[in-house]
Batch of 4 targets.
Target 1
Amino acid sequence: MTWSLRTPFTNARRRAWARRARQPGELLYVAIGDSAAQGVGARRIDASYVGLLAARLQRLTGRTVRVVNLSRYGARLDDALERQLPQLAQLEPDLVTVAIGANDMVAHDAERFVDEFERLLAALPPHAIVADLPCFHFGDRERDAVHASRAIADLVRARGLAFAPLHRVTERRRGWGSWPEFAWDQFHPSAIGYRVWESAFAGALAKRVRALPSAS
């Protein structure tokens, strides 16, 4: 791995999530994703969308939650397939969220994207909640993200999995008034922006909670 100014931060963030994974909980929440799932852009992991969803799950169920965040900074679909899914297969989560594919828009290959996403979905538990891509707001990446998000929505629904409309909720936040929702790099969400991301999962999470078995 090439060292950069990001490396100390990303290493620290990874260690923070590793410590969080060692905390016990009655329910297990596993996240698959990229730097957004790591919470890059927010100062604390609890302010990331994964942290917010864990808190929502605990609040709705009244049960403690262990979080295993398998995401990786810069991850693309191939990383999810090769590194994250094998780790997921060793766990028995009560909740799984997936938000990945934005980094694949750097050099988008539509056919490969659909093939890899289908393979990802095939390996998920039936209660997984899968998001499409966030809105890039302008340029070629947004054009590709629109097409990719439509494909994701179709694939997720064909599999009968729960869908989180991330592109739609982030697309609503256009214009200069949305700047507080972005971090200093104007790419990753801020703590405010992660609350928007969390809202994309909220409806599906509430349904998942209703389907959870009662505590013994």
Note: The domain at 7-210 is CATH 3.40.50.1110 (Rossmann fold).
Target 2
Amino acid sequence: MIEVEIQNETHQTQHRIRFAAVPRIGEGIRLLEPDGCWASYDVLDLWYQKADFGDIWIPYLHVCMTPSEKAAMPPAASAPAQRPIGDTEVLPDYGADERPVYGEEEFVSFTG
């Protein structure tokens, strides 16, 4: 297994995933979205960087969501939510009995 760092242009995130073979430029891969659904991504760029230890080269992939997949998504989900730098979120002041209860479905696991 080859561990590859994936830099996702669509969501501006980085993940490390293991592959049996490194995907080539132009190939498609399926990645788990933050909402828990799978989506298609195109490999835009592939490069290798030498590791800090030994004579090992680490592959890096630069990916972007496939245009047809992006077009099929709802408008709010296709554009990542961006807040101004320094913007803070104001949480409502709930009383002791008014706090919302969140179930396990509210959490997403990125491990696979």
Note: Residues 5 and 70 are 22 Å apart (CA to CA).
Target 3
Amino acid sequence: MKTSFQNLNKAFDNKIRLGIMSVLSVNSRASFNQLKEVLEVTDGNLASHLKALESAGYIAVNKSFINRKPNTNYEITPSGAAAFESHLQALEEILKQL
């Protein structure tokens, strides 16, 4: 069982980061406001977790303007998708061993 726990990715230990990756793994992209609403978190809290995932290379940020208003969208990167899939597989292995 020790091996399965070692395969968990520390970047996804936090429930907000896990939620972000879950949303982005089933949607091609999500806006800051969509993530904030779905995860029910504050702007600052969400921003810090998004920055951590971006720094790890797990998500990409796309900024644009819609009718002169800033619009920020996030999408999962190929390396982020692979890391998240590995994390989920490790969780499944742990559950199977219980």
Note: The longest helix spans residues 78-97.
Target 4
Amino acid sequence: MEKREELYAGKAKSVYKTDDPDLLIMHFRDDTSAFDGKKLEQLERKGKVNNIFNAFIMEKLKAAGIPTHFEKRLSDRESLVKCMDMMPVECVVRNISAGSLVRRLGVEEGLELNPPTYELFLKNDAQGDPMINESLCLTFGWATEAQLAEMKTLTYKVNGVLKQLFDEAGMLLVDYKLEFGVFKGEVVLGDEFSPDGCRLWDKSTREKLDKDRFRQGLGGVVEAYEEVGRRLGIQFD
């Protein structure tokens, strides 16, 4: 597999073309950002930890029958993924109240949400990733009705798999975001799943083990990510 020119550079990952038009190389950097890029730092080992963590989760999801863009981990910081037509929509599931839900509705943090909520957001940093709905997606062509239905189905299926996985490891899956694309006509899970894009709390103490440690200046960000991985049985070295 030949790595070629950079196709895209996001907040924490870079994507490169390969000699196969159907495959890309995703490189995880140490960059860490919050508040739409207003807070930005480099955290040593974070790229390696997130790449290994993501590979573990994607394999679990694939085993559960969820189609993903993940092909294989190439190295500590790089993975091979399918080249997809990404939809600019973030699918968010919330099992426990936290973050923007608390700020928007004025509800208490830590409430169990039954059933879990499902929300859509436009992936647009300049506009602050605003909340959207299915009607807007159809009007502006961000996704079709069939794609939206499949994204919702897959997002809840991911919730069932990962909520149990983290629970068995002594953690609460508070909320998370997923991004999807289309590969050869099929809706496929893309991007990554790591503590960067979800909230995870210790089940007993409710200690935060995710990116909120960076957002809130709690420190020990990468160490918390490694602790989550350790509980799941992930080896980082």
Note: DSSP finds six helices and 13 strands in the chain.
